[in-house]
Amino acid sequence: MDYMDELINDFQKKTNEFLAQHNYDLSSQKLLYHYTSLEKFEQIIASRKFLFTHYENLNDTLELKYGYQIFEKLVYETKVPDADNYLKNLKAILLNHEIDFYICSFSEQNDNLSLWRLYGDDGYGVALGIDPNFTLVSEKKVENPTISAAIYKQATFEANFKKLCNRINIITNCSKYLVLSESRQKEVLKHLYSHLFVYCFSICLVTKHESYQHESEVRLLLKDGRLSYPNEYQNGFYFSKDRFHLKGKSVDKTITFLDDNLAIKKDTVTVEKNSILSSTLDDTFLKTIYLGPKVPKGTKLNYEKLLKKYNFDITNIKIIETDLPYQ
Fold it and tell me: What is the value of pTM for the model shown?
């Protein structure tokens, strides 16, 4: 290993260190809440698995674009070498599935009106309080999702990203780099940028506009693809085909708009939904169930019976009827 390889390895360690700062703090042991419909609730308790949706099928389709635009601005500000090519490749990675990420969303809030409306079947569903450790039966490293709190403010990662860019500038301007052959210089820069790609991509996946801050979202992420786990899988890591759930299922969405003749129109567009099932969770993952504000009062016993049907120990699970006024 030569001096440049050492610098590249140090740079990778620094990117990983900065990324780890965004990992969710498990020390508080606060429960995470997943808002869902009754149908999906039964699927979850029957299988002990959660559904992770491909990042391109997020409800807010502008999220990745928002994150990319922030990094685009910062890259030009820091004046890293070959900035245009770096941004071109970053955009291609976001769009061309060189890394595939699958996301399952949770919240730190157990009774949020907006979340009931958007994700809890308009108040008829449930919010599942789960152990944040997401303890799986499988012991494979690749089955353990990365847990990250959503980032709502650019300042949260801006300083670290600038430090990484400045480190690239220092490396590419040092005497030992400048005496390298042109091909070796390109190779070193390629390695540095590959680690910066992973940093930017990972941050983009958990960055949301500050107007969503009320959701207090925490994201669980599973990843595969050509650039995933490079130390363990030299040719990339990919989940087996049987793990995919409803692969390519078409979901119709209605769009309402005002046309040029001032007539109100409704169009239906079809969206391909790609999802993957998590590995099986340990039976103790479920701690609390909040019933939606529109769930009929007095039906708590039915939920206990459903849990018993799927062999859950209900003595360790709290079922709570919400008092949120919502009709």
Answer: 0.84
Phi then psi for residue 299, to 5 deg, are -105, 10
Say yes or no to pLDDT of 273 above 90.
no
The CB density around residue 61, as the number of other CB atoms within 10 Å, is 11
DSSP H/E element including 278? none
DSSP string, 149-170: EPB--THHHHHHHHHHHHHHHH
Strand partners, 264: 258
DSSP, collapsed to helix, strand or coil, labels residue 46 as helix
Distance between CA atoms of 127 and 112, rounded to whole angstroms?
A: 10
Helices (H), the chain: 3-20, 38-47, 63-78, 83-96, 113-119, 155-173, 175-178, 182-206, 300-309
* Residue range 62-103, pLDDT digits in tens: 667 778 888 889 989 999 998 898 888 888 877 666 678 899
Whether the CB-CB separation of 245 and 276 falls below 8 Å is answered with yes
Out of 26-35, 130-139, 231-240, pick the least confident. 231-240
Question: In the chain, where are the structural domains located?
Answer: 3-321
